[in-house]
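Can anyone check this?
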Amino acid sequence: MGADKWRNPDEDLPRDFAERREENYRELRKPLDPQVFVDELREQMTTELGLLNDRMPRLSWLDIAERKSGAIRLTPAEAQPEPKNLRRIKGEVQHRWGVVPLIDMLKEAVLRTGCLDAVTSVSGGGSLLAEVLAVRMLLVIYAYGTNTGIKAVASGGHGHTEDELRYVRRRYLTPETARQIAIEIANASFAARSTELWGQGSTAVASDSTHVRAYDQNLFTEWHSRYGGRGVLIYWHVEKKSLAIHSQLINCTASEVAAMFEGAMRHGTTMDVEANYTDSHGQSEIGFGITRLLNFDLLPRIKRINKVKLYRPVAGEPDAYPRLAPALTRPIRWELIAQQYDQMIKYATAIRTRTASTEAILRRFTRNASHPTYAAMLEVGRAQKTIFVARYLRLRDLQREIEEGLNVMESSNGANSVIAYGKGGEIMQAREGDTLVVPSLDRLGSRATSSSRTSYSRSSAGRARSSFPISSRSTSSRCRCDRAARLYRRSGGRR
């Protein structure tokens, strides 16, 4: 179990790469000729460094000079003013809908999207009626998504016993099923959005990890030195309109860069991810190198930017970019990139086609830092990071864009803590399947609330059906579950 993480990195490469070489290059949108790739990357470096050098006198927020603390001094951007109509919008939403229970938002999302069509019996056949299964699935999802637990939800007076709910959990609600339900809700949310209200579809996501406390008896519980406590890490990807598109459970010692790639490439939704905002963990050179090979932009928040060094695109030109000289360092080793270009494409293809996990590849490379392909990826990353930093220092709008994206991520973490309010947010499930299903159901709860907001903005019927004058943390009552079952039966399992 897991022994492949210790194997030779060369065994990660796809076996049919030579036969499908042109197809693999085309999928990654990379030229077959390594010199074309090198020339394009070098030209972008030259352009961005030249623009930064020429516009330095007009950049009041930037100063580059020789200092012991670091050459680059960047003044943070001022806080953006609050939109004029924001308070009025919040007030109108509160007046029109008031407090809407989470269970009702979940029910509306199920009825509008037909996402429970993804539910199939683990053993191959089920005997429950569709409307009964729908109600019990809603209750189980609510139990895990809010972390209140099946026992507490079973006492809600809805006519379904604890044993019946646990049976549905074991037989129907697998981690794969929970992920598929969440994907269906996300896709329906994207399709339902009106461009007049929500604007054009976003191609950027923000990602970060959240430390969730867990009981000692949980098999996944680990002690995390940074957070100073026991628990598990959940890594999230959230698009700019606050909809979570991917979540995964990772080890406390796992590479967050690898988790970022996993979510950006394998979220499973219809969203086309072209850029990823990350916190300071995303500023690694290997991260920049792999994202360049995989064709999406890495946009991290740069920690200790005063210490960042910019690489030179060409050797033998010490007088180039005189205003940037204190922050410049050695030239990029283009000959190494050209020499290892085909091997780098092989590893990028391995990540794209999942012949090996990004986590396993990075772990083996970092243990063998002298591996020539890893060294070439680092050079590509240094070139790409130089391009990004030069653009980041020059463009105030880019700095604000990254901060806004990461603020959405922080707000999403706050919303998750409200949704998963049970037991103080501490995961108590000790079985592997129960723990693995929690991230998907937390994500499902986030998506259900977003899906309901999207649907309500386009449907007066949704507004009428959502006005239940009860607490947002109350468990579903018998009448609401029976009503959900009737609606589900009338719709044939679809909206």
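Reply from J.R.: I decoded it. DSSP finds 19 helices and ten strands in the chain.
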